[in-house]
Specification:
The complex is a heterodimer.
Chain A lengths: L1 H11 L11 H8 L2 E6 L7 E2 L5 E2 L1 H14 L5 E6 L4 H6 L5 E7 L2 H5 L3 E3 L4 E3 L1 E6 L13 E6 L3 H12 L4 E6 L2 H10 L4 E5 H8 L8 E3 L7 E8 L3 H19 L7 H4 L6 H7 L5 H5 L5 H9 L2 H8 L29
Parallel strand pairs in A: 1-4, 1-5, 9-10, 9-11
Antiparallel strand pairs in A: 2-3, 5-13, 6-13, 7-13, 8-11, 8-12
Helix pairs in contact in A: 3-9, 3-13, 9-13
Chain B lengths: L27 H9 L4 H26 L8 H8 L8 H5 L1 H6 L8 H19 L8 H16 L1 E2 L1 H23 L2 H37 L4 H34 L5 H30 L3 E2 L9 H28 L3 H15 L3 H15 L8 H27 L2 H9 L4 H31 L11 H9 L10 H28 L6
Antiparallel strand pairs in B: 1-2
The chains are: A alpha/beta, B mainly alpha.
Protein name (chain A): L-glutamine-binding protein /L-glutamate-binding protein /L-aspartate-binding protein /L-asparagine-binding protein
Keywords (chain A): Signal, Transport
Pfam family, one (chain A): SBP_bac_3
């Protein structure tokens, strides 16, 4: 009671109250559910399916953390957030983890007082134009009208790009991706710009996908990753190393198929440490020894999650590209489990 | 007839000529068309232009409906089936029907509960809407909210029933003290309750003063804003400390002093009773009853409500709460008592000066900063409170218009009959004022119902949120627009048009002025 009055008073006095509570892990365990912030819907990344179950690439991170902490990948309360409400939801303690294709930037990390726990998807901002426009490069877009989602980093990147190249444009601000596509198809804007992954996903559902081209320029770095609040390093460690476990498992060839077999013990000490048959990594995090095994048991390793939700075989059809393991020339890289 | 002209006129017709049919241009459809569509050059041109646009629209829309695909599992499949032809993809409505109507998280084996609640809503609303139905049905209307709560949210039936019981008990306490007991006994009751309230208030103020000192010291004096806040909290603390005993004595004595007519003391006593009952008796009673005779449905969290059901839920609850609240605010604004009038004016003007979406954002994100992190003050409840307050302010102004439209003679006539304020308001003023206000109230109600879609902005999945979020962003159904939004528009039109038809019917029923 005293604390709530105190916090309220601090807010009244105009001082931002940071770090509402210290032990997120205890709260999650007591609640028996992980409150995980997701989008209201981005194809392949987070969307409820026809029976109402959340699916997707970001959703898989939530489920993996829930499995590591609570042993059950379904012990997640998915809290849908918009681009505008996501940060307040996390800062106010409504959610424990935000896995909502959020770009890791300096100001979000430092000024908004969040802790990005890693990168689960390396994206970049691209442009889509109708083929009949005959544009071959983004630098030919002088005077174009551009559909752009408000409140995102893409909006700022766009301004930077056009200013740096000294060409003019007219923005058409739009709230959601679905609206942007509708405006673009209806011809309200010449160009639609957002993360290249989303462009590819949305173009796949056009009536005639071949009538639209993605321009070669990728004008920004968009490292998308899950994040937590500042001030609870134990919780941040759990989330960070759960993501790393998914990534390491792919590197070590631990899959949902051979998980049971390998967790009986192997010749490879790092796999043993990861799966808890050797060492005490789990107890250092304050979790069971089998935490990583539980996280991997939900949907497999990073590569399996990728292929299942957004990979080449899905309607989204994204190639691994930058998101391949470092051993395959990509950027996905986990520090060692030691 | 006489024979006067029998010799002078060769032929006299003795039967009437059968009426000949009117000219073709003056009868039937042709006449209607001539008079209504081609009555002049200007109207003819307008008609031709209108026909042109209607025809173009029909040529575009008809194949769209006619070719509509009802069975497909994704937009891609729709396009494949259509194979280049124009056609709607209604399959999205079939595939996501449950989500559109009930939201995607409501347990599917509980859909019947929503349907039963909706059918009973019609039954419960009927006696309130149609005066010709037996008045006894109003008992069911009063009981309905508790039943509907149980059906929609689930849990134990005893929980809402116990609440109902405690509300009835509170009313009984009020009536007992205000009218049923002899005056000298009431004097004793007043003394006891006055004493309790006086001491309680003094104690609360004392605690508050200590809390304020604690807050002031926590804020500290670093920086200008903090220093100002520090000073303000200290001044408030000193006030609370100095006035705790005098305020307690004053309030306690005021309560004791009201024993003769029993007004104040019965209100305070029933509030005290309600406080004690709801904080200490509610949980044990319903849990005990439930352990004896468990009547339970699977509990559903508020966060899992969605689809059109959420719009209906918010619309129904907020309209039915905001009309009485609006009446109170309107009467309060007319009140000669400056405190009541001031509070009402400030409230109404503040709420009307703030956009609803701002209030919803406050409910969604800002309150979370003020409330302690572990408190789970229900999001739907917060939204209901905000929408109710918002529409109550508007309804209050509509009703104030009705009150102002009454001739002064009505108030004076009520006074001259010897009616007191309550009787005059209830029997003379409100029936007339509300009759005048019906179109305005219905206008606010229809607007409010449509405004419930604004909750989609704060990431609640009502009908529009469901369309904008999960459906349009699912892998299967991206780029589906007209079908889903058209369906949403249809649902809203049906409800809003029914409301407006009802209000017109009601106006005709109440038209007692016989102009």
């Amino acid at each position: 009671m005293k604390k709530s009055v105190f916090l309220g008073a601090l807010t009244v006095a105009g001082i931002v109250a940071g770090g509402a509570s210290a032990a997120t892990l205890d709260e999650v365990k007591a609640r028996g559910k992980l409150n995980c912030g997701v989008t209201t819907g981005v194809p392949g990344f987070a969307e409820p399916d026809a029976s109402g179950v959340w699916q997707g690439f970001d959703v898989a991170v939530c489920r993996a953390v829930a499995a590591a902490v609570l042993g059950d990948g379904n012990a997640v309360e998915f809290v849908p957030t918009t681009g505008k409400t996501r940060f307040t939801a996390l800062a106010s303690g409504e959610i424990d983890l935000l896995a909502r294709n959020t770009t890791w930037t300096f100001s979000r990390d430092v000024d908004l007082k969040f802790e990005f726990i890693g990168v689960n998807y390396y994206d970049g901002q691209g442009f889509m134009v109708p083929k009949e426009l005959g544009v071959a490069s983004a630098k030919d877009l002088d005077g174009a009208t551009v559909c752009i989602q408000t409140g995102t980093t893409t909006e700022l990147n766009l301004a930077d790009f056009f200013r740096a190249n000294n060409i003019s444009y007219e923005p058409v601000p739009i709230e959601t991706g679905a609206e942007a596509v509708q405006q673009y198809i209806a011809g309200a804007c010449d160009v639609y710009t957002t993360d290249a992954s989303a462009l590819a996903a949305q173009r796949a559902n056009f009536e005639d996908p071949t009538a639209h081209v993605l321009l070669p320029e990728i004008i920004s770095k968009e490292p998308l990753g899950p994040l937590v609040r500042h001030g609870d390093n134990e919780w941040a460690d759990i989330a960070r190393w759960t993501l790393n476990a998914l990534i390491s498992a792919e590197e070590l060839n631990v899959t949902s198929v051979n998980l049971e077999e390998l967790s009986a013990g192997t010749e490879n000490p790092e796999i043993n440490r990861l799966l808890g048959t050797e060492g005490e990594l789990g107890s250092m995090l304050g979790l069971d020894a089998g935490w990583a095994k539980a996280a991997l048991g939900v949907a497999g390793n990073y590569g399996e999650i990728f292929e299942q939700n957004i990979g080449a075989a899905t309607p989204i059809g994204l190639a691994r590209g930058l998101n391949a393991q470092w051993t395959d020339g990509g950027l996905i890289y986990s520090p060692p489990f030691r | 007839m006489s024979d006067t002209h029998a010799q002078t006129v060769a032929f006299v017709r003795e039967t009437q000529i059968p009426p000949s049919p009117p000219p073709v241009t003056e009868a039937g459809a042709v006449k209607w068309v001539r008079e209504n569509l081609f009555s002049g050059v200007f109207n003819t041109v307008l008609t031709l232009v209108a026909i042109y646009f209607v025809a173009r629209f029909a040529v575009f829309v008809f194949p769209w409906f006619y070719n509509g695909v009802w069975e497909a599992s994704s937009r891609k499949e729709c396009l494949d089936i259509l194979d280049g032809a124009t056609g709607a993809c209604f399959a999205v409505l079939v595939d996501r029907w449950d989500h559109l109507v009930f939201g995607f998280k409501y347990p599917p084996d509980g859909y019947w509960r929503i349907l039963v609640a909706f059918i009973l809503l019609v039954v419960a609303a009927a006696p309130a809407l149609f005066a010709s139905l037996p008045r006894k049905l109003l008992f069911f209307t009063a009981f309905y909210p508790f039943l509907a709560f149980w059906l929609i949210w689930g849990g134990s039936l005893w929980f809402p029933l116990t609440i109902l019981g405690l509300i009835i008990a509170t009313v009984l306490v009020f009536r007992l003290i205000s009218a049923q007991i002899p005056v000298n006994f009431r004097q004793i009751v007043s003394a006891v309750i006055g004493g309790i309230c006086g001491i309680g208030l003094a104690y609360l103020l004392f605690i508050g003063a200590k809390e304020l000192v604690f807050i002031a010291n926590s804020v500290g004096t670093e920086g200008a804003i903090a220093t100002i806040a520090y000073g303000v909290f200290w001044v408030m603390a000193v006030f609370a400390f100095v006035f705790c005993v005098p305020m307690g004595i004053f309030v306690g004595y005021a309560i004791y002093n009201s024993f003769e007519d029993g007004g104040l003391v019965s209100i305070v006593a029933s509030l005290l009773f309600a406080y004690v009952a709801f904080s200490f008796l509610l949980a044990p009673i319903w849990m005990a009853l439930n352990s004896v005779v468990p009547i339970e449905l699977e509990a559903v969290a508020s966060r899992d409500m969605g689809g059109f059901m959420l719009n209906m839920l918010l619309g129904t609850i907020c309209v039915s709460l905001s009309v009485p609240l609006g009446i109170l605010l309107a009467l309060g604004r007319q009140s000669p008592m400056p405190l009541i009038k001031g509070v009402c004016v400030v409230f109404i003007e503040f709420i009307r000066g703030v956009p609803l979406i701002t209030l919803l954002f406050v409910a969604n994100v800002m309150l979370a900063y003020f409330l302690p992190p572990e408190s789970n003050f229900d999001l739907i409840l917060r939204v209901i409170i905000m929408i109710t307050l918002f529409s109550a302010a508007y309804i209050a102004e509509v009703i104030r218009g009705g009150l102002a439209a009454l001739p002064k003679g009505q108030y004076e006539a009520a006074d001259s009959l010897g009616l007191n304020y309550n009787q005059a308001t209830r029997l003379i003023i409100l029936p007339q004022a509300l009759k005048i206000s019906i179109p305005g109230i219905v206008n606010v109600a229809v607007g409010l119902f449509k405004d419930t879609t604004l909750v989609s902005i704060i990431s609640m999945f009502d009908l529009v949120g469901m369309i904008r979020g999960p459906i349009q962003n699912s892998t299967e159904w991206t780029s589906v627009y007209w079908e889903v939004y058209g369906f949403g528009a249809l649902l809203f039109f049906v409800v809003c048009y029914s409301i407006s038809q009802y209000s017109q019917w009601l106006e005709r029923q109440l038209n007692t002025s016989h102009h």
